[in-house]
Structures are given as structure tokens and as C-alpha cells.
Amino acid sequence: MSEIKFWEGKEWQNHIEKLLKLHYPLGDYVPIPDKDGGDKGIEGFSRDGRCFQCYAAEEPLTIEELYNKQRRKISNDIKKFKNNQKELSSFFGPTKITRWIFVVPRHETNKIVAHAEKKLKK
């Protein structure tokens, strides 16, 4: 039986950003710093049109608690992303965003997939 690693939020974000920088060629992953004015609903984006938002809920949590926190985070950050569209477009330049990707260390219920799909349709 494997052990579940509980991530701190910033630790998870740093881990994912390192992986994205390894995956994409130099300059093709662009992080959006959050220290000055916030991240506008994304951690960064890739030049192939993907936006990434990382989230690690404070654990330990039940399946239902984790689902509720992730559902709220998706809803709030997609709203932020839409509300900041004008400012974000100045970051994207010629890049056309085609996907908003929610990156979590674990999800335990298919309800979160259904929620994300519902938000996508809006």
C-alpha cells in the first residue's frame, strides 16, 4: 500500500512549475508571478495555448471535504480568469489560450470532473 503525500500549496505550485519548465522548451512556459497584483487565476501558461492553475488543499481531508475545496477553487479561479481577461491578454501576446488546466496532487471523486466539465460548458 502506498502512502499519500500531503503537499503544502506553495510547495505543490513550485513542484509543478519545475515540471512544466522541464517539459516545455525554454521560454515556452511563462509563469505569472502572484506577489504583485495576484496571478489572475493562473500560475502560468504555455505558448501552445494552455493555462495552468495549481492547487493543493490543506490536508488531511475526507473525500467530500476535498471535493468541496477543489470545486470552490475551480469556480473562483475560472471567474478570476474571465474577469481578468483584458489584463491577461496583454501577457499572452499572440498566444491563443485553448485550455485552462487545474493541477492537483489528488482527486478522489468523479464529481470534480463533472464540475469542471460543467464550468467548461459555461
The largest sheet has its strands arranged as 1-2-3-4
Average residue-wise pLDDT: 92
Got a strand count?
4
Envelope shape = globular
**Describe the biggest sheet?**
4 strands, mixed
Give the % helix.
40-55%
> Which band does the percent of strand residues land in?
5-15%
Attribute tags:
4 helices, 46% helix, 122 residues
Report what the structure shows.
It is a single chain. This protein is α+β, with helices and mostly antiparallel strands and 122 residues long. Helix content is 46%, strand content 13%. The protein has one domain. The protein contains four helices and four strands, in the order H-E-E-E-H-H-E-H. Strands 1-2-3-4 form a four-stranded mixed beta sheet. A hairpin with a 3-residue loop joins strand 2 and strand 3. The chain is globular, with a radius of gyration of 15 Å.
Topology:
Layout: H1 9-23, E1 29-31, E2 44-46, E3 50-54, H2 63-83, H3 85-92, E4 99-103, H4 110-121
Parallel strand pairs: 3-4
Antiparallel strand pairs: 1-2, 2-3
Helix pairs in contact: 2-4
